[in-house]
Structure formats: C-alpha cells, structure tokens
Automatic annotation (TrEMBL):
Name listed for the protein in its UniProt record: L-threonylcarbamoyladenylate synthase
Catalytic activity: L-threonine + hydrogencarbonate + ATP = L-threonylcarbamoyladenylate + diphosphate + H2O
Assigned protein family: Belongs to the SUA5 family.
Pfam families in alphabetical order: Sua5_yciO_yrdC, TfoX_C
Species annotation: Candidatus Deianiraea vastatrix
Amino acid sequence: MITDNEICKKAANILKLGGVVLSKTDTVYGLLADSQNIDAVNKIYEIKNRDYTKKLAIFAPNVEFISQICKVSESAKIVLQNLLPGHFTFILDTNENGQKLFPWLEKFEDKSIGIRIPKDDFITSLMRETGFPISATSANISANPDSSVFENISLEIQNLVDYIVKDDNIIEKEPSSVIDLRNFEKEYKILRNTRYTIDFILLANAILSKTDLIKITNIGEKTRAELFKIGIYCKEDFDKFTATEIYKKLVNLNKKNKHKMLFYALFCAKFDINCMKIPSDIKQIADLEFSKISYNS
C-alpha cells in the first residue's frame, strides 16, 4: 500500500516537472501547480476554462515568507500571525521580490496576489518537498460549484490533470474567507464571506481600535502575536495584569512558552528595563516569582 509520504513525493515530482495536481486541501479540492512556472500556471487556466484576467491564489509556507514577497504593514502582519495557518486568503500587494518570483504577474497592472497558508499537513509537506510556493484554485470548471467530495469533481477535470490525491477527509468543506488587507489601517474589504470571517472581524476591530500597539521593552514580534491571542493589544491592556498573570495565560495558550526568559521579559517590561541588563534586586524578585509559578504549574 502506498504511503502518504510516497504520495507526497510523487505529487511534488509532478509539480517540479510543471504538471498539475488535483488534491484535497484544508477547504475544498484544488488544482495545484508551481506558482513560479508560467506554463504550469497556464495549464490550470486551460483545465478550468478560467478567465486569464483572474489570478490564482498562492499557498505560502509561513508568514515570514509572505512578508518577504509582499508589502505587509505592522498591523496586517499581526493579522497574518494570528489567523494563519487557517481558512483565510488575504489580498496583498507584492513587493519587488514577489514580482520577480511570479513572472506571470508582469501582464497585470495590479501586482496584488491572494495568499494563504493552508491548515493541512499534506499541503505543508508538499511545499516542503517542492521548495516553492504553490498556485491553487478550486477543482471545478469556472462558474461551476467547487467540491469537497471527490466523486463530485467532473471527469473532464480528472482526465486533464497529471496526478490525483484523493482524500475526502477534508477539514472544513467550504472555501476560505477572502479579505483585502492592502489598505488595512484605513479600511479592510471582505471579498468572500464565510463562517470564519467573524474571527477576522473581531481581531481587526481590536487592532484598529488601539493606537498604541505593543511596543514595550523586551516584547518581541512572536510574543506580541501571542499577546494578541490572549486579548492584550496595547500597553493599557498589558498594565491590567501582573507579569505572572500574563505568563500563565501565555503558557496555557502554548506550553512552549514555559521558560524563564519569557517571564524575565514580561517582568522587566513592567519596569521598562532591558531584561538582558536586569538589576540584581529586580532579578531576585523575578526569580522568586518564577519559582512560585514553576512550583504550582
């Protein structure tokens, strides 16, 4: 019996050769191709009978990659860090790196792309195996319904692709929400609404209602993203809790946060001092507090 790893390697090889793969994703079945290969991307248009003026979405491996190829504001990056991987496609303008990476963008006056990070182990493994981002769109003839059930995909589509990954164990069975983040600080646009859109709206409103985003001594980008997940958006929110309370919330959110340097960072942030140059008296207090947390955890 062929293993998932073997299927992934086979699909990756097809993509590397410029082929099109029909595969399950975290939403619905999709048509996948090497996003850097114009001929491969055009095959998807031909298979779907898709209007060439409509761009394909891009599957990206991580938020850092998105930041490298797109123009991402500080506030927009917080959205990406909190909602991806997930069932969201975000519209962003590409930067010079992105325009070089995707040569098919040259024919478009608008250099924006729709980009997402699927919440799907197979797609994640596929991108790792290929080493490149993937162009993707639903596996249907344009204007026809998309599908999360393989048997509902037209034989015309099945016969035109180069490889099929069949698996009806799809997480959500509906397409992603599509949200335009290009002018996020002034306004955002919901281009396709799904039941997950409310998660974006709540986060976006929380971010946009706060002018003083987390810019506190010792609070790095990754920690800031996690603070947003526990409802701490600005210094005013930060000051409502003790360092111990915030630390416990972060550990409950992610057990990997259970380490002393994070507690030092939070504790010193209360005094607005650099935790790498912590005074001995403050360090003694911090050590005592941390020992209590460790004992009770």
